[in-house]
Amino acid sequence: MIAKTRQIANIRGLTLHLPTVKYTKPEYAYLAMTNARCLSAESFVKPGDHVRIGQIIGMRKGAFFEQPIHATVSGEVVEPVKKFHRSGKLVEFIVIKNDFKDEYHERVQERTDEEIEKLTLEDFAEITKNNALVGLGGSSFPTYIKFQTKDPIDTICINGVECEPYLSADHRLIMEFPEQIMLGIKYALHAFNAKRAVICIKKKYDDLYYTLTAELTRFPELPIEVKRVGNYYPQGWEIEMIKTGLGVKVPQGVLPAKLGIMVFNVSTIVGLWRAIKWNQPVIERNFTLTGDGIKLPLNFRVRIGTPLQELIKESKGYVDDTDKVLILGGPMMGANLVRDDAVITRTCTSCIILNAKKEIEEPCVRCASCVYSCPAGLQPVEIMHAVKNNDKEALKTKLNIKACILCGMCSYTCTSKIHLTDYCRKAKKMAV
Ligand code: SF4
Ligand code: SF4
To answer: What is the pTM of this model?
Structure first.
């Protein structure tokens, strides 16, 4: 991953100021039956059935919860296929042949302001659960669990930092959906009976600041503040964002809710607006396709279930026939894709396509750069040694691998180009 991270420094800002291209015309929508949190599922449809947007067509089943699967296009269900999920596993997908009529199912209905006024916290949990809303910044944490908190919430904190370099999906979302963001925050304030909301954005983005503050003048009754925070990585890590944006230090291992703070990613708050106002699941999302390996980097508003290959084609394809590196997500925390026949899911924020360049890993020189750069205060080099020695006990106890947020900083700063974050990923699995 480190090789790609360094390489990406040359493609800064390719898409930041490009308006979003609406891509709602996949010929087929592919919807994964299972995912990392839900390992089994039941389909409610069969080939030949006609479905409409927002219709519940299946149910994913996890250890602690169930998650409806919704149609994201209208059309006919065809034979299911097996494809590689972004998790790297081969899973079954429900496939819908798009009829391009964009018909919505009757469960997608507008709620009036009066109806929304009457919704309780429990109603918010129910609605977000039925619409399978999850953390759309990439966490995929089920949103309804946030509405089940028993802790009193004083402050809603909106993460608009998008701190991984060179991503612009949230940037464009803020520029193009400011009203929906304010309404989503209004609903969250109401649900938790919170006193205030703070939207955190990077200090350097004047365009975001002026867009949001201009929009706020239309909602003078709402206690919302726009806060410009640091330009550095990992400013978007919620612990770091709360520290800079709210001046509150959240101890490691403590949920912000325990301190009266509830955090939502900016794209999740738009998803909340959609779920509450229209009872609509996440049928589309902002997605950045960028990198020096494709001809036309673009921001898309794309239907969930769209094949990545279609977007690559829309971006005029690869620049040449040389080997490419594909990263799904950001350069620091994203995962490598071994093939380009992936499908856009609710939590895919971006794909970076790079011309492959070789970087040779060298032996550790004990410079401690990785230790100094770790925002969680860990010792990545020792984690690597513990993984190599299969020392699970050390990983769990003195090396505290649970606190690692897989931010990628250790790999980025390593003098010897060692893929330390890959060791951290392995360590987390070993220490379960
Ligand atoms: S990936 Fe983990 S160990 Fe490496 S810098 Fe980030 S938090 Fe620290
Ligand atoms: S940054 Fe790399 S070379 Fe330096 S101590 Fe850490 S692992 Fe070793």
So the answer is: 0.89
DSSP string of 161-194? ---STT--HHHHHHHH-HHHHHHHHHHHHHHHT-
Cα distance between the two ends of the chain: 24
> How is the chain split into domains, by residue range?
2-104+282-355, 113-278, 369-430
Task: Tell the CATH topology of 113-278.
Answer: Rossmann fold (3.40.50)
Ligand 2: atom nearest CA of 363 is 3
54 touches ligand 1 (CB under 6 Å) = no
Contact in structure between 363 and 416 (CB atoms under 8 Å): yes
User: Hey, which residues does 91 pair with through a beta bridge?
Assistant: 83
Residue 147 dihedral angles phi and psi, to the nearest 5°: -80, 0
R_g of the chain, CA atoms, integer Å: 22
Cα gap 224→217, rounded to integer Å: 10
Question: Is the backbone peptide bond immediately before 234 cis, with ω within 30 degrees of 0?
Answer: yes
Which pLDDT tens digit goes with each residue over 271-322? 999 999 999 999 999 999 999 999 999 999 999 999 999 999 999 999 998 8
Q: Which amino acid is it at 419? A: H
In tens, the pLDDT along 360-399 reads: 889 999 999 999 999 999 999 999 999 999 999 999 999 9
Ligand 2 midpoint to CA 232 (Å): 21
Nearest-ligand number for the alpha carbon of 380: 1
Residue at token pair 């039925």: 130
Q: Which residues contact 128 (CB under 8 A, 6 or more apart)?
A: 142, 143, 144, 147, 272, 275
Task: Give dist(CA 357, CA 19) in Å, integer.
Answer: 30
Residue 104 three-state SS: strand
